[in-house]
Amino acid sequence: MTHSYLSPTGVEIAFVLVGLVILGSGLLVVTIKNLVYAALWLVVCMGSVAVEYLLLGAELLAWVQVLIYAGAVIVLFLFGLMLTKAPIGPTEELNVRNRWPALLVGLGAAGTLVTVVVQAYQHTWFDPRSSVSLGTGRSLGTQVFQYWVLPFEVLSVLLLAALVGAIVLSRRQRDSEEAEA
Fold first, then answer.
1. How far is it, in rounded angstroms, from Cα 36 to Cα 81?
2. Distance between CA 28 and CA 63 in Å, rounded?
3. 106 C-beta neighbours (distance < 10 Å), count
4. Pairwise CA distance, residues 164 & 181, whole Å
5. Contact between residue 57 and residue 131 where contact means Cβ atoms under 8 Å apart
């Protein structure tokens, strides 16, 4: 069966459209002035990545993406915002002077990445219906719990330390405000 770029399938069209949603929401995450809105756009970005995993036939990775990143990490981020009394609304502190150069660098990096991936895989066609052992639960579990256990545990301790640090900082600020009053 021959396949060309001029006759894309519905899955390929959906993949590109969801990729554009990822690009747009990612740009909004780094350019918006409201931290809560930025976190919500990050949820859209992470959810769209999960949709891409579904389109590629990796259901387990899609659920991990939704539960861990779009769920737990964003909740932890919002929880940290609330505990540290970070500015929730639009602030001028987030309006950095280098926003447009940073946007150009980000777009250049994204363009380079797309170019490299397209050139590397331009003659390779992936069939999501084929049984690829890399996306199975068994192979993922083997990789995580055999080779990546230590980094996984270090990351969990780091996230816990960040949460405890946010609680300590917010309590210290409240105690000093109550002492002044």
1. 8
2. 24
3. 15
4. 26
5. no
Residue at 154 is within a domain: no
d(CA 135, CA 131): 9
Domain carrying residue 18: 10-130
Report the alpha-carbon distance of residue 84 to residue 64 in Å, rounded: 28
Listed residue (68, 57, 41, 27) closest to 126, CA to CA: 57
pLDDT tens-digit series, residues 35-81? 788 888 989 999 999 999 999 888 888 888 888 888 888 887 777 77
Flag whether 165 is in a domain.
no
Number of domains in the chain: 1
- pTM of the full structure: 0.57
Task: For residue 116, give both structure tokens.
Answer: 């490299």
Q: Using one digit for the tens of pLDDT, what is the confidence trace for 78-115? A: 777 777 666 666 666 555 667 778 778 878 888 888 88
Is residue 46 included in any domain, yes or no? Answer: yes
47 exposure class (CB count in 10 Å sphere: 0-12, 13-18, 19+): buried
* Structure-token pair, residue 52: 């891409």
Sequence-distant (≥ 6) Cβ neighbours of residue 67 within 8 angstroms? none
Whether residue 157 is contained in a domain is answered as: no
Return the CATH number at 57: 1.20.120.1200
Cα(42)–Cα(81) distance, integer angstroms: 14
